[in-house]
Amino acid sequence: KLPLQEKQFRTQRIERSCKTSPAQLKKPLQDLTKSASLREEFIKALKVNDKSDRTIKSYCDAVKMFQTFIHKHPLHVTENDIRAFFYLIKEKNYAPRSFNSIYYGLRAFYEIFLPDVPLMASFRRHKTNKHLVEVLTRHEVILLLRHTDNLKHKAIIETLYSSGVRVSECVGLKFSDLDRKEMLIHVSNAKGGKDRYTILSPRCLLTLEQYYRAFTPKQWLFEGHGEKQLSSHMAEIAVSNAAKRAGIKKTITPHVLRHTFATHFLESDGRLPVLQQMLGHEHIRTTARYIHVCNDLIRTVKSPLDLLSHNSETKGGRQ
Length: 319
Description:
The chain is mainly α and 319 residues long. The protein is built from 17 helices and three strands. It has helices at residues 4-18, 22-25, 29-35, 37-48, 53-70, 79-91, 96-113, 138-146, 151-163, 167-171, 202-215, 232-245, 254-267, 272-279, 284-288, 295-300, 310-318; strands at residues 178-179, 184-187, 196-199.
């Protein structure tokens, strides 16, 4: 049980930060979820910290999952409650990335609402295995486009592959983001709230212009029903269905097309710092991982041993 003084302290923290009355704290989980005062304050704080909508949803889901497990208000927990919850997650064989998503969500929650109580101090994220990223061959990209009859879907796939944008960035584009003079795509409010430019393929531009004339979108480059922005999920379905029609056995997602763009760019003698800028990576080591999957580039490299001349080898032997 918590000491009375610490209970009073936590209650005061809650009242100051989210204006939740002591009576509300005693409400069942369902009632608290409906009132959503704590959730709303959490979301506001995350937005102030410039977290993306996807990250915010992930963090909120983590807290809700923990709250369901402990069956009490999340600000009335102990370190042992969190330890028991993480043990359950481990027993259920959650992947390291899934565990880390939950860990970061809880850590953010308690850093915001209980910054002076080190509830998460003894817990650490899990190490993730570094697998080679999945990429398509150039022939598979051709098959993917060849089996995409829907003009909008083809425009989406060509945009993803030709520019390396994330799927959320792709569906967030407007026609005004296409700089046809400089042949660049302006990616605004990207991951981390940063703007950047990436390349606009002439071939992709032709497809986009055909699509624009046929569908005449009003606000967003790719729109769904009611002139609303097309969801990332619908773009993912378009890519997945095209891959199935093409007979590609790999699991193909929009992010695989981003990986493929990066890999093929480097295989075509593209420079790593340029790729870093186009992908919007903060650290070049993130971009450098694509070097490990550039099979065409690796096959063209000669061993230093083979570059030694016969004369140099002979002179070295005489010395």
